[in-house]
Amino acid sequence: MSLFKVRNWWKTQCPTVEPSYDSFSLHCARLCLEEGEKDSIVIGCHSGQLCIYQPSGARTELPDLDAETEGHPANQRLQGDALENQFQPSDVLLEVMLPLPVIGVSSGKFTTSASRNDPRQQLAVLHPMRLCIFQIVTVEGIAEHGDYTKLVPLYDHALAKPAFSFCQGPFGGIKGREFLCVQHLDSSLRFFEQDGISYERTLATDRHLPSPVRYVVRTDCFVTVAPSWVLECYRYQDIAEAQEALRRHDPIWSLCVGEYALDLSVHQISSTESVIVVLGENNLLCVSDTGKVRFIKKLDYSPICFHAFVVGWYWEPGARLLLAVVSESGSLLIYENDKILWSAQLPDIPVALSRANVSGLPGALVTLGQTGSLTIGYLGSEPELFKVPALNLAPLELDRCQRELLALEREIRAGVDPSDASIANAAAERDVTLELSIDNCIPCTHPTNITTSTGAATLEMCRLSVTVHVSLNLEMLQLTVALDPAIRCTKESFLFRDVLANSTELFEVWLYPYEAATPASLAVTVSCSYTNKQSITRVLQRLVALPLQLFVKSCPASKEAKHKITLTASSNAVAAAGGTGLNALFPEFCTSEGSQTALGLQSLVDGRRVTIVAAKNTNRFRIQSDELTLLPLVFECLLKRFNPEPAKTPKGRPGITVNNVPPVSELANHFRIHHDLRRELKHLETELEIATSQMRLFERRFVVKLQDRSLRALDGVLLLLKRNHSHVAKLCQMLKTMRQAVKLSQIHLGAVLQLFSLCYCHSALGTSGGVKYLEYLRGLLSSTVIDSTEQSYEQMLLPVARFLEQTGPLRNVLDGTEGSEPTFDEPYLLETETVDETTRAAQHHKLFEKYLHRVLERVNGNLATASKAIVGNSSGSGRNSVDFEDQPLPEAPNEDGDEEETERSEQEGTQSDHGAPDGAASPIVHTKDTRHH
After folding, report:
1. Stretch 113-135: mean pLDDT, rounded?
2. Count of CB atoms within 10 A of residue 216's CB?
3. pTM of full prediction above 0.70
4. Which of 138, 267, 453, 725 is the most exposed place for a label (fewest CB within 10 A)?
């Protein structure tokens, strides 16, 4: 945005207000209708409207911007209207409706009957299939309305092919006469002389895209840009030659422009040189008439139109070439050669720009808009009343911002009627019905990134079928499948258009393990978005769970494990599942005989194991594994087996309660692994960039040596080239491996976040007054881990963790750290130039770890307090509050233990649970049973 604005002096609206104007619709010239006449403005419209304006502006004067007195008459208009319009009805000379669209207008001496002493000029109007020549005649009036102007047709030429543009000039160097050259859409040229002779010529090479053609008077040549983006110059004598054998088809000189030319302009700047100015899509090029480049200006904006003019006479030594370019943002930039002189903002974005000497304002800027808005302005500055407010350097108050955010949320909720949403949802359920089904597993036939060892189980896949029943006509219906990143879907989205009422659509895809990592969830979300004929969009979602045997198989149970999670099932959940035995919960992995108390499951993708143990006398379960990433899959499956319909569960009475949460250090460790892998990936990308730049350098050097035709000179460069090529290939392979490792770390990190989210949702916080903590933790414990090119996932979560640590119910005002905390706008958080990207990412990761530990430790402390309250309010029978952690794990799934030893272990565990207040946040110490040794 420019600081200055183009001041408005004269403005009017052409009769046609539709977008029917382009860069060829504006023509400014002196028509010499009367003595002492100034320039007139001729406007041609695609609708056939032709208008001629002659702005006078004789009754007004320009405002004196330097006057300091408020009562100055020149400043009175500034106080009233800074953009005062000087348009008068008498400025309109002619408005006529032609029978054909006008695609070009020009003026000159186009008739043989006109004498050299007659200064009047004729008007040439180009139609799509006709070229017409008119004489402008002024008829003296005998009434009070004065003189009036009319068009008298002189002659016209019918065109055999559609026209694109035309140009004029004294072709052949004939003085006092001007000829016309029309360019057709096939880039062929047709010349018209005043005596009626016309002939058509075709330039060399294939020309499928027409471009502007201009005539150079000094050298008697034509310049144009070929479809190959080459500026070519043809001599008129070569083009006008009748016999093809005598014609010279090649241009006398050519220059590669490299882009399409939006417009051309030719001006003579001295008695020995003319220049050709080419406005490209990205560059402004100036070439002499001999083919030498004077300058090239790289434009950092998209140009719309331009106008070139010479200040002074070309035979004077002080003549200056000025260029005015209009950008897509409406800025007017004026250059002298390649140096910018001025920049101003136009009120509207024009499609045509010109310069005219009108009465009362010499050197005016004329702009024509796409809808016929004609404006004459001048360069100047306008007083700006806006003052930049002082910067607010006060630190950001998070409490005040939180209160404002809550007030806005309450206002939004008060303005939204929930009944409308329920009615809309019910209508959406009636309009479209989704039915999901999962077929049995079959051997997988799709390629995966999983490397299975010899003797391992074969990977399987299952088919997801989605049946959509539509009860009304739909304009569009789209189905999308969202699932864990470790699982691949053959096709993630389907699109149906113009769905008829009472029709059925079927959507079938295959789901199979793809990455060498166990998924965190078996849930598959199918989203259906549809648009009815009234352009109203609705979205439906359905969930379906994949079979567990698609990813794990049964194996012997493990005796000891590094990570353990204890669960307690309610009586309602046990009754819904049919008992606490693993045979009823996992019938696909257990036998129907006996009561199995331990079950081992092994992952099919990486071979790691997880064990589920059921207590004999209580409704408690233990999930344990050496890898924390395997627990969320079995945990979620166990939750669904106990509570297949979560919507029907009574509020405040979950089916399963988690008694402990994994340590925060494990979550921080996975974040650290992800950060380190991403740092190594950035390092490899930097090395590859350096190696490829060296490769290009060696290749250029190899070409230079090859031109010397010396085999000995090539030996050294060829050796460097081979070594660099091997280094680049090695870096590419390492980069591919590292990207796969980063992707696996994202999946593992998402699994751990999913585990923490499940533990907190089914812990004592979910049953007591800790629901508010869960609402604040959902944004932090999202299982979707995505890294952008500029920021890592830790950098994205840093504002969330910091906000939770300092605002809301997780804020601890008694820890003594509030006064020592820096403000939200810390310099190293917003610093982008003083440190490199790697150092800044390391700083952000360290801050994120600190805030993550503080937030989760406070949550775990609240969880321990809630667990104590629940244990204190229990019946105290000993079995209901038994600590499952000290129960010995059987070696095999069917191994039975001693009943008395189990009860004694449970009683000891109860006492240890009462004496460990921080047990929910710390790793649990397990006692070994010596009976198995």
Report:
1. 85
2. 20
3. no
4. 453
